[in-house]
Amino acid sequence: MRLNKLLADNGVASRRAADELIEAGKVTIDGERTTTLGQRVDPDRQVVEVNGEILRSAKGQRRTYYLLNKPAGVVCTNERRETRPRAVDLVTDRNKGRIYTVGRLDEKSKGLVLLTNDGDFAHRVMHPRHGVSKTYLVKVRGRVGDETLNEIRDGVYLSGKKTQGVRILVRKRSHEYTHLMVVLREGVNREIRRMFAKVGFKVVDLKRSRIAHLTARGLKIGSWRPLTRAEVAELIAISEGGEEPDPGPARARRSAGSGRGRRSRGGPNRRRG
After folding, report:
1. Going along 51-202, which residue ranges are E strands?
2. C-alpha angle 179-181-185 in degrees, rounded to nearest 5
3. Sequence-ordered strand ranges (E) for 143-240
4. Distance in angstroms (rounded) separating the CA atoms of residues 147 and 181
5. Residue 71 and residue 87: Cα distance in Å, rounded?
């Protein structure tokens, strides 16, 4: 299997973050440090270590999946030396195993985060190629006009790459603040904050309210719950091209270029973290 998949299957990090560990020289194969991306290994025949910890084949490992309503001030990292509160620590299930967040939500932001030890699942939900949407409620300082919103929809350059597939719905607009719903299908670091900064506006509050069909209904800030088998299966089906519900509420106004969608469904079974 690919080296980054082995790291993901062992709950070390997502595939993308695993590539960063490999490039940083923190992974060894049979005692030799490697920085080669895309390398294939046989964990039953070779000794693979990350920061001195030997990884095993994940065959037979129990898969776990959780939905967390992350508070602001909590970070999405597995770094053991991290002194700030971590999302993985808010999931208090004793049987969770070694989990990690599926993508990241920055420290200042709050809302839904998926956590798992299933590398294939994480890759499907996070990689832009699979098109699983993430919906955000965004508060921007100042009145953002339709022309500016269309500029963002058309794509802006972040770190030399143009953003794609951004959907924006206007929820409320005044001279002081603009309240928006933003739907993304890619996972660029701090993408929404950086997009609005690029056109001269500052995001003052950001909440991820939805991941595909999953919502925070019944899940208080700081709380978590396990995903049901049906929810996992539906996320996988969406990643394979299945129909996805529309995140847009009836009260949101579609301004020019906002696009179309479908209705949502679902209801969680909650636990307190």
Report:
1. 53-55, 65-70, 100-101, 110-116, 134-141, 157-158, 161-162, 167-173, 177-184
2. 150
3. 157-158, 161-162, 167-173, 177-184, 203-211, 214-215, 224-226
4. 16
5. 9
pLDDT, the chain, mean: 84
Rounded Cα distance between 53 and 12, Å, is: 10
Residues 140 and 177: beta-carbon distance below 8 Å? yes
The two tokens of residue 273 are: 């973290």
What confidence tens digit (pLDDT) does each residue in 173-218 have?
Answer: 999 999 999 999 876 778 999 999 999 999 999 999 999 999 999 8
CATH class of 3-55: alpha beta
Q: Percent of the chain scored above 90 by pLDDT?
A: 48
For the ranges 31-45, 125-139, 254-268, which has the lowest average pLDDT?
254-268
Domain 65-129+217-239 = CATH 3.30.420.270: no
Which segments of 160-216 does DSSP mark as H helices, in order?
191-198
* Of residues 73, 187, 179, the one with CA closest to residue 134: 187
Catalytic residues, which ones? 106
How far is the C-alpha of 46 from the C-alpha of 144, rounded, in Å? 56
CATH topology assigned to domain 131-211? Alpha-Beta Plaits (3.30.70)
Amino acid identity at 215: T
φ/ψ of residue 65, rounded to 5? -140, 130
Domain boundaries, the chain: 3-55, 65-129+217-239, 131-211
- Tell me whether the CATH fold assigned to 3-55 matches the one assigned to 65-129+217-239: no
